[in-house]
Design a protein that fits this description.
This protein is an alpha+beta fold. The protein has a four-stranded antiparallel β-sheet. A two-stranded parallel ribbon has the order 1-2. Strands 3-4 form a two-stranded antiparallel sheet. The longest helix is centred in the middle third of the chain and has 15 residues.
Length: 210
């Protein structure tokens, strides 16, 4: 654990680099552990080939990658059984054009600096991988998740292969404000290792690489 702690300190230093200052295209966008962030972007107009549709929070159909469908449905069932809530996706896969419209709207509203704290630039959104899902408790009107809902998600998402992608206190690494509703599929083994060691996906991918 001491080696991990030292390495994570080096990761923090590394991710102190200027966001969007030195970017590169990811080599395998279909990889479950693909790291898409303010340093790594997807190939232009990338779209997963295995998208399927699931029921969304507003009566719509939401596209996700087929590889995570069963695990996500199992997560939903457990939330229903244990908390009595319906955790539904508001969005998952978003193509590059949609992300551009969304990001441009936020920039117009709040300016680039603030928009960059909560929205990804086109090509840099992991929603485009089809592996990220934004959740909502459909019983709530003015918020996505209650504190109780999030506590359950934080403690249980890894059992189904998901992590909370932008956790509180990790903003200097992820580059984004805390989002209690944004989960990312990485598979059960990686998800458990990430939560057991209090890592971000950035930390974990770097640990594997090095």
């Amino acid at each position: 654990m001491k080696k991990i702690a030292v390495f994570l300190f080096m990761c923090v230093l590394a991710f102190g680099a200027e966001f969007y200052g030195d970017t590169k295209e990811v080599s395998d966008p279909d990889d479950l552990l693909v790291l898409v962030n303010k340093f790594n972007y997807l190939p232009k107009n990338y779209k997963p080939s295995d998208l399927v549709y699931i029921d969304g929070a507003y009566g719509n159909k939401v596209p996700i990658r087929s590889v995570l469908k069963d695990d996500f449905i199992a997560l939903q069932k457990s939330a229903k059984d244990e908390l009595g809530i319906s955790l539904m996706p508001t969005t998952a896969f978003r193509d590059q054009n949609f992300q551009k419209v969304l990001y441009d709207k936020y920039v117009k509203k709040d300016g680039i600096k603030k928009a960059d704290t909560y929205s990804a630039r086109p090509g840099h959104s992991e929603h485009q991988t089809g592996l990220a899902i934004d959740l909502k408790n459909t019983a709530l009107k003015k918020t996505r998740l209650s504190d109780e809902n999030y506590k359950w998600l934080e403690e249980n998402a890894h059992k189904y292969g998901f992590i909370v992608r932008f956790p509180k206190g990790k903003e200097q690494i992820t580059g984004y404000k805390f989002e209690n509703w944004h989960i990312r599929y990485v598979g059960k083994k990686a998800a458990k290792e990430i939560i057991d060691n209090n890592l971000t996906l950035e930390d974990y991918v770097d640990l594997i690489a090095k």
